[in-house]
Design a protein that fits this description.
Transmembrane segments: 314-331
Number of strands: 21
Structural class: alpha/beta
Number of domains: 1
Largest sheet: 9 strands, parallel
Distance between the termini: 127 Å
CATH architecture: Alpha-Beta Horseshoe
Keywords: Cell membrane, Glycoprotein, Leucine-rich repeat, Membrane, Receptor, Repeat, Transmembrane, Transmembrane helix
Membrane topology: Single-pass type I membrane protein
Radius of gyration: 30 Å
Family: Belongs to the RLP family.
CATH topology: Leucine-rich repeat, LRR (right-handed beta-alpha superhelix)
CATH superfamily: Ribonuclease Inhibitor
InterPro entries: Leu-rich_rpt, LRR_dom_sf
């Protein structure tokens, strides 16, 4: 409780710290990075963090924190990284009265946190840093006073540890929760977003056509939801896309071909039984839907064929018996 005002970085990750996070860091008004990753901390996030207006990074991943979504952090105008992954948050974000929350946010990870309800649509329109493309050419590390910041990002079913995060990097991970409802078209405005993971939820509706505007997107994971409709042809314009996972949804129709879509394999689409076209083995009919399986007609023809052979055999046997009988009668006379 008596930290110096000059304290900028407080990293206590990978320990066995227990109990609640202290409600105050006293005079640490210059605090920019708070990393409590992988401890045994519990209870709510201290609301006093809202007064540290220079905070750029808050990482409390892999603890036992039980709280609602910290809408009040939206007032932190410098906050760039917010990682709440693998904790116990029990209500959906966000009903904040803050006018423009999370304007500077570049990385947000809410995965494995037990959120329910709709995706946090209210905070999307004000997330200006996700829309900005001005910084795409800057090789500057996230955080002015530290360059060893690291987070875990889930892509294509694997976790990747990112070290020395560039200012240009943007990621949004809401996977493995209980979000439902449709994906907001507003996400299409996030032109600088590189990683979007909404997998393992109960999302419905179509894949937004507005995703064609996400020209910097490199990884898109929408697997294990209840998405319906066709895969938008407009996604062909997202030529930076290197990883795509649409598996285990309810998508149907012809898979788009061309550009980066020619590089995606079967595992990007498995579990959608009404999809057709390459790289799947299911062919499409003229209307762009899977061709009806021929197995039933084949079975019918085979059954009919077997029936014809049975009749022929019966006729042959009957004729043979009758012929032999007549021959015997003739020979007897």
């Amino acid at each position: 409780g008596s930290f110096s005002t000059e304290l900028i970085t407080l990293h206590l990750e990978n320990n066995s710290l227990e109990g609640h996070i202290h409600n105050t860091f006293a005079n640490a008004s210059h605090l920019r990075s708070l990393d409590l990753y992988s401890n045994k901390l519990e209870g709510p996030l201290p609301r006093s963090l809202a007064k540290y207006i220079k905070l750029e990074v808050v990482n409390v991943e892999n603890n036992m924190i039980s709280d609602s979504f910290p809408c009040w952090m939206g007032s932190l105008s410098e906050l760039k990284i917010l990682v709440l992954r693998s904790n116990q948050f029990d209500c959906p974000p966000c009903n904040s009265n803050i006018t423009f929350p999370f304007q500077a946010l570049r990385i947000i990870d809410l995965s494995h946190t037990e959120f329910t309800g709709f995706l946090p649509r209210r905070i999307f329109p004000s997330m200006e840093a996700m829309k900005n493309v001005d910084e795409q050419g800057r090789l500057e590390y996230m955080g002015r006073a530290f360059c060893d910041e690291s987070i875990t990002v889930a892509m294509k079913g694997h976790d990747f540890q990112l070290q020395n995060i560039f200012v240009m990097f943007r990621a949004m991970d809401f996977s493995s929760n209980r979000f439902h409802g449709e994906i907001s078209e507003v996400l299409g405005n996030f032109k600088s977003l590189k990683v979007l993971n909404l997998s393992h939820n109960s999302l419905t509706g179509n894949i937004p056509v507005s995703f064609e505007n996400m020209t910097a997107l490199e990884s898109l994971d929408l697997s294990f939801n209840k998405l319906d409709g066709r895969i938008p042809e407009q996604l062909l314009s997202v030529t930076a896309l290197a990883l795509l996972n649409l598996s285990y949804n309810r998508l149907w129709g012809r898979i788009p071909r061309g550009n980066q879509f020619n590089t995606f394999q079967n595992d990007s689409y498995i579990g959608n039984i009404r999809l057709c076209g390459e790289p799947l083995t299911v062919r499409c009919s003229n209307d762009g839907l899977p061709k009806a399986p021929r197995l039933a007609s084949f079975d019918h023809d085979e059954t009919a064929s077997r029936f014809d052979w049975k009749m022929a055999k019966m006729g042959y046997a009957s004729g043979l018996v009758i012929g032999l009988s007549i021959g015997y009668m003739v020979l007897s006379k």
